[in-house]
């Protein structure tokens, strides 16, 4: 049993939403044993597109993206831009979500991002259907800057679009699910304000459990971690957290203080985990930079393109590499950020919906 398998056994789950076990009845003459199909279902990608200066590019269309999984071209099934004003499009169908509005309201050209709604001069990007988990470090690392961190998280919660739901968790040695997913901002803020500093920090254990909570959810989902120091109490390595987050399509953002950055092992792990999932890691020197980091995360979430596809037949039962590119005139110059793959259980029989056969698994009884 390898490390990843032990971790998933510890969690009691499979390492991906993409595995769907469904009992498949067979005529007795063909096969008297129980058989199962393991279908790879919809794979969702959240893609950030920026120019060389880091400005977000809006107004792209499904045909502007090309997806390959293990170098196999994939067909986009659904497409959504992060802006509230952008239509949701089901590719290959005439059905398009409500796109009503003034006759002259046309999609902007990619080189000219659409104007965003503002409130007192502050950008409020759209975040339709997002589920955001905030994971707050309440270990003994937090004694000095506890109140400032609470303020930064509270401002982040209040600034999120109404369409999003937010859960607030805290961790020290153990994970505390303070507030479940809710659109009630008052309830979430109350959870933030009522937290108290505690024991040692088991970040990776707690983050893995948070990824498990996010895994069954559909649509855009992200975990925003605030950490004030290195992990000193986990039994799970950060690589297993990154693999599970990748395989469930969960974006991980990490906001940390300079105390963690001064510890090379922790800072490198934070960078790897966030990058692997399509997120970012931030290292703030003071409370102002903490607030700036949360603002950047909110902005990033609001500008993501969400694409999905049904994988083509693929015999690879392990790690599947995903590559997303922009195609078309003047689009190659832009930069893309998304996860680079996902993992299937090696011991599972894998077939796609278009396959005519399925490998047998042991009787489920």
Question: What's a quick, concise take on this entry?
Answer:
It contains eight helices and 19 strands. Helices cover 24% and strands 27% of the residues.
Task: Describe the 3D structure.
This protein has 365 residues and is α+β, with helices and mostly antiparallel strands. It is 24% helix and 27% strand. It has eight helices and 19 strands. The protein is globular. The protein starts with a helix and ends in a 22-residue tail after the last strand.
Under CATH, the topology of the domain at 122-302 can be stated as Rossmann fold
Specify the structural class.
alpha+beta
Which overall shape is indicated by the principal axes computed on the Cα atoms? globular
The radius of gyration computed from the alpha-carbon positions, rounded to a whole number of angstroms, is: 21 Å
Strand portion? 25-35%
Series of secondary-structure elements, N-terminal to C-terminal:
HEEEEEEEEEEHEEHHEHEHHEHEEEE
Strand element count: 19
Helix content: 10-25%
**In DSSP terms, counting alpha (H) and pi (I) runs of 4 or more, how many helices?**
8
Poorly predicted regions: 13-39, 93-127, 346-365
CATH homologous superfamily heading of the domain at 122-302 = von Willebrand factor, type A domain
Termini separation: 22 Å
**What is the CATH architecture assignment of the domain at 122-302?**
3-Layer(aba) Sandwich
Strand order of the largest sheet: 12-11-10-13-14-15
Main sheet attributes: strand count, strand direction, barrel closure? 6 strands, mixed
Observed structural traits:
six-stranded mixed β-sheet; 24% helix; 365 residues; Rossmann fold; alpha+beta; five-stranded antiparallel β-sheet
């Amino acid at each position: 049993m390898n490390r990843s398998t032990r971790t998933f056994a510890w969690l009691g789950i499979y390492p991906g939403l993409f595995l769907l076990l469904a009992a498949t009845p067979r005529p007795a003459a063909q096969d008297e044993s129980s058989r199962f199909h393991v279908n790879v279902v919809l794979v969702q990608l959240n893609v950030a597109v920026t120019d060389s200066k880091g400005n977000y590019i809006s107004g792209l269309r499904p045909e502007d993206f090309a997806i390959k999984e293990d170098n196999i071209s994939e067909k986009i099934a659904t497409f959504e831009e992060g802006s509230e004003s952008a239509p949701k499009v089901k590719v290959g169908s005439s059905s398009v979500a409500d796109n009503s509005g003034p006759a002259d309201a046309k999609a902007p050209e990619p080189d000219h991002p659409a104007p965003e709604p503002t409130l007192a001069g502050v950008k409020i990007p759209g975040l339709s259907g997002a589920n955001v988990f905030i994971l707050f470090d309440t270990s003994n690392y937090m004694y000095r800057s506890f109140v400032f961190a609470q303020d930064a998280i509270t401002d982040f919660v209040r600034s999120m679009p109404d369409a999003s739901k937010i859960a607030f968790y805290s961790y020290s040695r153990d994970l505390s699910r303070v507030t479940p997913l809710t659109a009630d901002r008052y309830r979430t803020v109350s959870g933030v304000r009522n937290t108290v500093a505690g024991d040692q920090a088991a970040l990776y254990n707690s983050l893995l459990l948070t990824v498990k909570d996010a895994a069954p959810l559909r649509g855009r989902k992200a975990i925003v971690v605030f950490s004030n120091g290195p992990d000193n109490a986990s039994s799970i390595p950060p690589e297993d957290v990154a693999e599970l987050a990748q395989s469930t399509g969960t974006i991980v953002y990490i906001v940390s203080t300079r105390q963690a950055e001064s510890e090379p092992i922790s800072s490198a792990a934070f960078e790897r985990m966030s990058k692997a999932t399509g997120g970012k890691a931030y290292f703030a020197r003071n409370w102002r930079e903490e607030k700036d980091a949360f603002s950047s995360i909110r902005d990033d979430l609001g500008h993501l393109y969400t694409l999905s596809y049904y994988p083509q037949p693929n015999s690879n039962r392990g790690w599947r590499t995903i590559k997303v590119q922009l195609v078309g005139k003047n689009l190659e110059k832009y930069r893309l950020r998304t996860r680079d793959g996902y993992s299937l259980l090696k011991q599972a029989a894998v077939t796609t919906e278009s396959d005519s056969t399925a490998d047998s698994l042991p009787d489920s009884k």
